[in-house]
Amino acid sequence: MDKNLQRRTVLAAMAGGTVAAATGAGPAMAAPAAAPERLKGYTLPLSARGVANLAGKPPWNYVGDAVGAEFWTRPDAAAASLPTGLDPDPANPGHGYAVFIDWQFAATSDDYLDPTFSQYSEFLLLMDASYQGTAVAWCPFIWVDNDASLARGWVQGFPKKIGQIRQTRAFAVDSLAGPIVGKSGRFGATMSAGGRRLAETTVTLDHTADRLPALTRPIVNLRHFPQLALSGQDTPPVHELTMSVLDNLKMANTWVGSGDLHFFPAPREELADLGPTRVGVGFRGSLSYTVNDLKIL
Amino acid sequence: MDKNLQRRTVLAAMAGGTVAAATGAGPAMAAPAAAPERLKGYTLPLSARGVANLAGKPPWNYVGDAVGAEFWTRPDAAAASLPTGLDPDPANPGHGYAVFIDWQFAATSDDYLDPTFSQYSEFLLLMDASYQGTAVAWCPFIWVDNDASLARGWVQGFPKKIGQIRQTRAFAVDSLAGPIVGKSGRFGATMSAGGRRLAETTVTLDHTADRLPALTRPIVNLRHFPQLALSGQDTPPVHELTMSVLDNLKMANTWVGSGDLHFFPAPREELADLGPTRVGVGFRGSLSYTVNDLKIL
Amino acid sequence: MDKNLQRRTVLAAMAGGTVAAATGAGPAMAAPAAAPERLKGYTLPLSARGVANLAGKPPWNYVGDAVGAEFWTRPDAAAASLPTGLDPDPANPGHGYAVFIDWQFAATSDDYLDPTFSQYSEFLLLMDASYQGTAVAWCPFIWVDNDASLARGWVQGFPKKIGQIRQTRAFAVDSLAGPIVGKSGRFGATMSAGGRRLAETTVTLDHTADRLPALTRPIVNLRHFPQLALSGQDTPPVHELTMSVLDNLKMANTWVGSGDLHFFPAPREELADLGPTRVGVGFRGSLSYTVNDLKIL
Amino acid sequence: MDKNLQRRTVLAAMAGGTVAAATGAGPAMAAPAAAPERLKGYTLPLSARGVANLAGKPPWNYVGDAVGAEFWTRPDAAAASLPTGLDPDPANPGHGYAVFIDWQFAATSDDYLDPTFSQYSEFLLLMDASYQGTAVAWCPFIWVDNDASLARGWVQGFPKKIGQIRQTRAFAVDSLAGPIVGKSGRFGATMSAGGRRLAETTVTLDHTADRLPALTRPIVNLRHFPQLALSGQDTPPVHELTMSVLDNLKMANTWVGSGDLHFFPAPREELADLGPTRVGVGFRGSLSYTVNDLKIL
Questions:
Q1: Most buried among A14, A156, A171, B78, by the most CB within 10 A?
Q2: Separation in Å, CA B267 to CA A252, D178, D197, D199, D272
Q3: Would you call B194 and C160 a contact, using CB atoms and an 8 Å cutoff?
């Protein structure tokens, strides 16, 4: 470790910087680069021209269609899913939402012309929690089908894994092949990962609503990036609660009704530990927002 | 071959049927089953309960969003893409359409609740042709991302291969991440197969239209199923021109404007042989129809 | 129907051929093309240069690694899976094999340099059956992850659907990350389709064997290609039992031991109807063969 | 920011910890968690039982087959790909390796029985560089097809993106469908991402070798995890050069010969900026190692 420190010191010196902060922080604490990094970019991979990175700097604009269901799981299971710093919300023990979203993303105005890059589908849980007495939503699990989305998510603290997520779509023409967006319209949504079905819902619309039942509380995530150096494997350099800052949140076409919801057990997954004991409203609607910042709690 | 015929005769006799038609047809000509088949289903796999087949019997209902562009390729290349029985349409040599469609399919009313089964994306060419003096559209190449769709396509004569097809989506809320469905709205679409980009378009909407420029002619396909028995490898039991019967065709939200279009060469593909020398209108719209029949020409 | 026949007659006449055979066969019976087809290829899509087809004419060469297990299902379920013309094999009611194979394919000597095209993974069942008193194997269900393989399979009568199939690999260096090919070596294999796990096995090797327990009987398939014309939807133009002709079958590195095997129910599947009531030997080995012909029974 | 700090202080106090280090570090510098985290795991997602994380703590065991080629790119392009702290290696300007590897991973002894989890394929560049006068290899770009592998890679500093990577396989039986592992044996390998082919090689074996030409130098990576809080977007909390520690590295079956190598340009990629101006040896072989530690430089 001393040797590593020494190397870092020399490296930083060579690069014309200083290592004071790094030296003080110790090897288990990451430090800002001591010298200006000549590679460009925001996330990995940094590169000569700065266009190869999975995600460039914000602002990040999102628009999508959401289908989901409100549910209650066992309160002790919900409590066990919370990180240190969050408490169960006593108002509604075990309460949360399962949401499937077909997203389109754009940082620059041309991004949405490249759908392989800009489109992705997502499934996430948002569980009621309390942060210092404030009602918040905690996302214990989330899956997406796109690596750029995964990278942005990790930076926000969303613990994204890769899965396959699909939802019924509505179209602008009548057809027996699609539901109406209206009373009695039905929408299904499914999520699989590792070749196993992990979650599914079916929602029946009943009436319009001002906004989606989910996304009514600020989302608290846990930004976390571990250390691999042997002595630091228990002291992650990044481990911090964050609160999402969603600018310019808009919703439209929101319908609420009934729904069912099922989670299925699988190795290497704990989603089914939060399986519904009761299902509340089902919903569907469109939403958009912009991410430009994050509160570190 | 005699031995095979004898076996088929015995097989049919064992099964309590007759083999008159089969005997007369000869080994290279497929015959209707001489005895009732106890397995159920429409396409492969036939099975005990008849639910495992990739596609059950029609009616098949489709609804989708299409993005595409009109184009002209070299007239000799267009002519070379036509099967025996179709001629170039002298009215507009080398003219055709490249269309990307996000489909949702349903045979039964619940199918669209299972998006993994019912949704797929498609890219196809529709080239002007003439069948006995009638203006028709010929589909030389088509890709989809779903095996059930591939099976239905083969039965119709659409020569579907598996590819990855994506198109820009529009949503019900304003966002920098999505285009407007209106003047100046831009939509991109791409198709890849075998890990190679094969086609892409970008369309800019300008004005509404009554209907999509493509899909104005009956589609003629070539149903084709080869024989593997050595003596019959040059005499396919199914090789017939067909004309699609699209019931209840509806279109909505159709916009027309300008577009670009590019095809890229790849091994095992001939799409780029039909590469655009000129691009006409670009378009986007929704459509639905039902398939219940096919004309054998 | 008369009208269709007339059209075909005219079409053939225009093309300079004759329609005698086609006329005699009737509309529900497919006919060899009356005029030489100017498009080239073996399977769809036929094309100007004949390189776009999913599968060119045989010979087709295959080499692969197989992992699988012997099993017994309920005899009535096994019997119900058989097509007309095949009977249960009274010697061993309900007996069959579940086999996972990682294949590499080549028609030409360069094909294996294009692994995206030439490699695929497969899962299939081979159930004991009797054809006119001869012991054969019947393949009720099979999945692959490659469209070219699917096309070749349909031509052979293998009722292939698209799935995701994986098996444990062994490597030429020792590692805790891989099994030995030897006594106590363990191999897992899994198959998923539609985002659902459908089958899995774990095999423990015990001793070498001369050959794989599966693939000891000729495989009988049902070539089947339906008609979509309304009047012919119940009279498929191709519906014939076939017997695979595997030239130059070689096996190596075959080990036999014990295994477990599980099938899981899913909508649109009947695999679990054939679920194991008992599991016999597990096995692993390499094999190769060439397909150049098919017997039509 | 003060408010955020205050929140973190209160949070930590509530949780029974102290925030001294965090307070001192400032909001832009990540800190070890002030209170013990009750969620378990190593990478995201942390969870109640600690089994949902993409990667658990090391040791991580790897075994695989590698195919690749030595190459030279323009020295200025190679130099531009280096992070601050690394210099070009003057001994062989522009020199590096492109390597395709089919991996199998296991942390526990049962992991390799779950091939969907444990198997993945990888493509990476390893470019000659100098770290304080020591000859090292720098990995500017790397793609894998598995999210658990991506997570482990980020922790090591490998800037992994998701791609599709395939290589020709050799099997234990003779076949026209597979190459020999021996003189004149040919192996192809390809990499695609975002539906575009990005890299391909073909290697012809000539003679055996003691070890793979690549992997002869320690690999230096850049661990990097950015901040999303607006004020910290230019000061990543983790940004450190690292040196891989590969325990128990073994190689076998190594062959060296000739090769070709091509990179293809694509939006959002800079791989082709490092395109080969000359290609050296091609190679193929098996390797295994264990990762349990990382040197922070």
A1: B78
A2: 46, 20, 12, 15, 21
A3: no
Average pLDDT of the residues in C206-214: 96
Angle between helices B147-156 and C147-156 (to 10 degrees): 50
- Please say if the pLDDT value at position C6 is more than 90: no
Structure tokens of C197? 């796990």
Work out the percent of chain D whose per-residue pLDDT is above 90.
87
In order of B61, B65, B166, C68, the CA distances from B68 in angstroms are 21, 10, 12, 46
DSSP label at A27?
T
Q: Are strands A164-167 and A186-193 parallel, antiparallel or unpaired?
A: antiparallel
Q: A175: Cβ–Cβ under 8 A, 6 or more apart, which residues? A: B61, B62, B63, B104, B106, B250, B288
pLDDT digits (tens, 9 = 90+) for B183-210: 999 999 999 999 999 999 999 999 999 9
Which of D146, D195, D148, D186 is closest to D167 using CA atoms? D186
Coil, strand, or helix at residue A191?
strand
Query: For residue D119, what pLDDT is reported?
Result: 98
Q: Does D167 touch chain B (CB under 8 A)?
A: no
Cα–Cα distance for residue pair A11/A67, rounded to 1 Å: 51
pLDDT band at D289 (very low <50, low <70, confident <90, very high): very high
Query: pLDDT by residue (tens digit) across C53-89?
Result: 999 999 999 999 999 999 999 999 999 999 999 999 9
Q: What is the rounded distance in angstroms from the CA atom of residue A212 to the CA atom of residue C37?
A: 58
**CB half-sphere exposure, B35, CA atoms < 13 A:** 17
pLDDT band at D34 (very low <50, low <70, confident <90, very high): low
Residue D109 pLDDT: 84
For chain B, the chains sharing at least 3 beta-carbon pairs closer than 8 angstroms are A, C, D
Q: Which pLDDT belongs to residue B35?
A: 76
* Residue D274, SS3 per DSSP: helix
Average pLDDT value for residue range A42-46: 98
Binary contact (D81, A47; C-beta < 8 A):
yes
How many residues are recorded in chain A? Answer: 297
Q: In this model, does residue C270 exceed pLDDT 90? A: yes
D288 inside 8 A of chain C by CB: yes
**Confidence band, pLDDT 50/70/90 cuts, at residue B271:** very high
D196 → chain B, closest CA residue? B196
Residue C241 and residue C83 in contact, taking contact as beta carbons nearer than 8 Å: yes
Q: CB-CB: which of D8, D33, D224 is closest to A46?
A: D224
Neighboring chains of D (3 or more beta-carbon pairs < 8 A): A, B, C
DSSP string, C152-198: HHHHHT--EEE-EEEE----SS--TTS--SSTT-EEEEEEEETTEEE
Prediction pTM value: 0.91
CA of B122 vs chain D CAs: smallest distance (Å): 15
Backbone φ and ψ of B153, nearest 5°:
-60, -45
D 103-162 residues inside an 8 A Cβ radius of A:
114, 116-117, 131-132, 140-142, 147, 150, 154-156, 159-162
> Does residue D16 sit at the A interface (CB-CB below 8 Å)?
no
Is residue A192 within 8 angstroms of chain C, CB to CB? Answer: yes
Show the DSSP H helices in chain D as ranges.
Answer: 2-14, 20-25, 75-80, 115-118, 147-156
What DSSP letter does each residue of B251-266 carry, written as one string?
Answer: EEEEEEEEEEEEE---
pLDDT band for position C109 (cuts 50, 70, 90): confident
Query: Could you tell me if C192 lies within 8 Å of chain A, comparing CB atoms?
Result: yes
CB A104 within 8 A of CB A62: yes
Q: Is there a contact between C114 and C146 (Cβ–Cβ < 8 Å)?
A: no
Burial label, D209 (beta-carbon count in 10 A; 0-12, 13-18, 19+): middle
At C246 the three-state DSSP class reads strand
User: Which residue in C225, C244, C269 has the most chain B C-beta atoms within 10 A of its own C-beta, making it the best mutation to test that interface?
Assistant: C225
